[in-house]
Amino acid sequence: MKTDQELKAIVMQKYSEIALQSKEENQASCCGAGGCSTEVYNIMSDDYANLDGYSEDADLGLGCGLPTQFAKIKKGDVVIDLGSGAGNDAFVARSETGETGKVIGIDFTPAMIEKARVNAEKLAFHNLEFRQGDIEHMPVTANAADVIVSNCVLNLVPNKDAVFKEIFRVLKPGGHFSISDVVLVGDLPEALRSAAEMYAGCVSGAIQKDDYLALIEENGFEGLKIQKEKPIVIPDDILKNYLDDAGINTFRTGHTGIFSLTVYAEKPSQACCPPGCCD
């Protein structure tokens, strides 16, 4: 079993490599027999092309939903994008919050931060910034954000409870989040769970759907609702890198499901600090 720090190192290495490639290169880049190592990062992505603020240069095909579409962002809002990558969701959020608002993207990987900043400069966006940091310890003051969005990122973080605690801290009272993520129903085969490639590709880092939703409620959020849910199908040419034919058949015919989930919840308007400390 890898430690949290080892898992974080895997994520940083993989996403640093992806940051240096285009979406097309990521989708076409194969390494050896049996399929493409980067295909796993793209099997879940949704199409952003028709959303205001979309920037093709910032779209690396790494998401598993469209959280900004459901985030109820208003003009003048302060929005934080967790795991902002090359800037795609941050740019879409900026189109919603307008010139009077502000968007802050936070990403763990220096190469992604650099790519996002270059993209922002090209677009001459001045009410948007990208900060390098761990979303378990966000480089943001408390009660700073009206809205938090994130797209297929929390499943990469070993300590998801810590992230939800940070989201609660950083949101203003009455603020809310809309997060797209990968969750499981049933247990993944051990070969997938232990594969570093599948962890960095968002699959084996996912937790059970019920546990994920329980974490949100345990951290003091209210108004929890699932805004969108869809099954994710991993192609056989990826599975065969980890499972034999019998294992693939068992996986396909079993009760395990992998889902993209977009979840909404609010920080209570009377909240003054993390749950428990005001008692």
3D architecture notes:
The protein is an alpha/beta fold and 279 residues long. 33% of the residues lie in helices and 22% in strands. It has one domain (4-266): Vaccinia Virus protein VP39 (Rossmann fold). It is globular. The protein is built from eleven helices and eight strands.
Features:
eight-stranded mixed β-sheet; Rossmann fold; alpha/beta; globular; 279 residues; 11 helices; single chain; 22% strand
Tell me the number of strands.
8
User: What is the approximate shape?
Assistant: globular
Q: Kindly estimate the percentage of residues that lie in beta strands according to DSSP.
A: 15-25%
Question: Which ranges are low-confidence, i.e. pLDDT below 50, for 5 or more consecutive residues?
Answer: 26-38
SS summary, helix count? 11
Kindly state the percentage of residues in helix.
Answer: 25-40%
* Main β-sheet description: 8 strands, mixed
How large is the radius of gyration?
18 Å
Task: Please give the domain count.
Answer: 1
Average pLDDT, to the nearest integer?
A: 81
Query: What's the level 1 CATH class?
Result: Alpha Beta
Q: Which fold name corresponds to the CATH topology?
A: Rossmann fold
User: Architecture, CATH level 2?
Assistant: 3-Layer(aba) Sandwich
* Assigned CATH superfamily: Vaccinia Virus protein VP39
Alpha-carbon distance between the termini?
38 Å
Structural class designation: alpha/beta
Q: What does the oligomeric state look like here?
A: single chain
Query: N-to-C SSE series?
Result: HHHEHEHEEHEHHEHEHHE
